[in-house]
Amino acid sequence: MGMRVVSFTITEEPLPDPAVDALPERDFERIRAISQDMYSQPAVHVDELRVLAAKHPKVPMLRNHLAGALSAAGRHEEADRVIAHTVADFPRYLFAFCNRVMTLLSDGRIDAARALVETGPRGPLLVLTDFDPGRDVFHISEVVAHSAMVGHYMLATGRPDAARVQLKSLRQLAAGSPQTKSLRAAIKRYEAAIKLAEALRSLTEPTARAPRQRKPGPARRAPHLGPDS
Q1: Segments forming the whole domain that contains residue 145
Q2: Phi and psi at residue 210, to the nearest 5°
Q3: What is the pLDDT of residues 15-46, one digit of tens each?
Q4: What is each CA distance from 194 to 63, 111, 158, 197, 228, in whole angstroms?
Q5: Which is nearest to 131 in space by CA: 98, 105, 99, 103?
Q6: Which end of the chain has fewer beta carbons closer than 10 Å to its terminal beta carbon, N or C?
Q7: How many CB atoms within 10 Å of residue 41?
Q8: pTM exceeds 0.85 for this model
Q9: Long-range contacts of residues 51-57, Cβ cutoff 8 Å, at least 24 apart
Q10: Under a CB-based contact definition with an 8 Å cutoff, are residues 86 and 60 in contact?
Q11: Are 144 and 172 part of one and the same domain?
């Protein structure tokens, strides 16, 4: 099998988003203000974000903010529904896609996650450029979100070495980010579980029994070999 070389540019500069750029300035500034503390005070902003998302249905970022605020407020089922609808309506909106996969993994729905990430009609989406083939420049937040999602997915599907590759990438890009810390903790839990399973197996497996030693009996006389034998 040949090696596939993939390259793209990572930027920290804001990328153009026509839907966001078309927002009225008043709404744009309000959204930016909400994003500053929507996780520390999520219940305060849920209703306003719902109104803004309904007012601007072509801006997936607003739905993603709404899902984040709902989740932070403990309203996880509502958040999951918002994420699922956002993925269906905006299949190339990366953050909703990654959040959807992470939700499925958290719920133990590995087959559903696999259908999105690997076996779905879009094919494997384990490489960022496969997710959106028309782009070769990605914001660092997109790269971090995708790497974290792939890392957790690889771990959940029994490929810890591939998960460690993603963790190495995250450490280089955003060592102190919540995504890096989350994946690192997940890998540690996985490794601890493997060690525990091995220890339990060694306790429950029967110890190999030494071969039974035959007690020496009386010496037997060797048959006489002579000319007639």
Answers
A1: 91-195
A2: -70, 145
A3: 999 999 999 999 999 999 999 989 999 999 99
A4: 38, 22, 11, 5, 70
A5: 98
A6: N
A7: 14
A8: no
A9: 52/27, 55/27, 56/19, 56/23, 56/27
A10: yes
A11: yes
